[in-house]
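Page 47, continued from p. 46.
Same chain as before, 481 aa.
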Amino acid sequence: MRNAIIGIVIGVVVGVAVGATVVAPRLNPVGSEVPPGISPKARAIPPAAEKTLPPASRQAERLSEKAVEKPEKNKRHPPFPEQVDVPTTSGALSGAASETPPGAKVSGTGKSAEKTTDAGKTATKKPEKFKTDNPEFLADSETPQAPPAPVYTPPPAGPKTVYLKMASAYASTLPQLGTLAKRLDRDIWRVSDGMLEIKFYEPGALVPPLEMFDAVRAGAIDAAFSTPGFWSNKIPALQLFAAVPFGPSAKEFLAWIYFGGGKEQFEEIYHANGIHSVFCGLIAPEASGWFRKRIRTVEDLKGLKMRFFGLGAKVMQRLGVATTQLASGDIFVAFESGAIDAAEVSMPAIDLKLGLYRMAKNYYFPGWHQPATLFELMINLKKWQSLPVSAKAQIEAVCGDNIRYGLAAGEAGQFQALKKLQAQGVEVRRWPGEVLEALNTAWAEVARDEAKADRDFKRVWDSLSAFRKEYSIWNELSLPY
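Result:
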């Protein structure tokens, strides 16, 4: 067994030696075969041979290396040489496969080089234009142009917020009269989404209340909240747009204003005075006044000094009362100083807030002089005309809502106010029939005289009277009482 193994090992060794002798020459690279007659020692190029290479051969090798190098980033590819003439060495440099006959030329470098031995001339093929998809290697004429930089265009300017300064004839804390005015600066801002703002100013902050008409007309202030009855000494006809003694109820008043020609006459009168006015509030019937002594007959009215408002003041004058028009904030002082003996102001909720029960205890009803009272927002006419259409519509819409709110809140809040006044010792009284009849007769005289004295008053009074005559038929049919 041992001998058999030894024999196998010897056979393998001998086979490997024979294979190396026969196969090894075939494994040499094509360019490294040794021609017959050359000893194996000549297969390797001696170190000295490299040192003796002609300079042109070194240059050709360097050019060949550069031709395949990848260019640096962000640089164009260097132009390829069309032809480089390089003298070659004998076959001893690279073996038989790389030999070049004497006089032959090498065109280009690498694989693109072509050889010829035709009559010692070199046939060269001009290399094709270098093509690549990489923009770093495109020729100047093929370099893609960067898209033009976008030009910034600012967005169109939106509408600017419109600001209006509004003086008020009533304090913001005064129920109905003041709160209706104060609601404007909140609701206008909300409805316009902040694009229209009306700034509320307390009485006297911009101008005294009774000077607001002139201030708005002159443009000294943008707007004012008041009632048209304040301007009776300037334009008597405006009193008919505030409150009418023994006149229309709230619903009848609104029907005439919006559908009976009242609004058109109202605007015409104001425009002639450089003002645009919008109806902007309505309150329920008022009380008839506070008196320090009880009134039993018409004779008891004679000689009284009384704060009274609007056309009702002229009626009281016919019955012997000396009237004056005072702002609500001045009434207390006038009572205390003895300048007045009585005062008509407004409805129970407002009179309670003003504390008039401290000055007098006899509280009379009904409010014959003001069955309904309208309020207004006056705006300088040029300012109004400069407003956008949307701003005008927003003002009119909010003022219309103010009318709804004022009427509803006024009707709802009076009973509780009356109970509180009675708890303070106030005597709630009705006018004797004799006194009411005398007041109504006096009003007919006043209306007739005012119509004779002022053309606008007559025109408005005739319009309202004609409407009321027709409305009375419907009013009688529509009510069950």
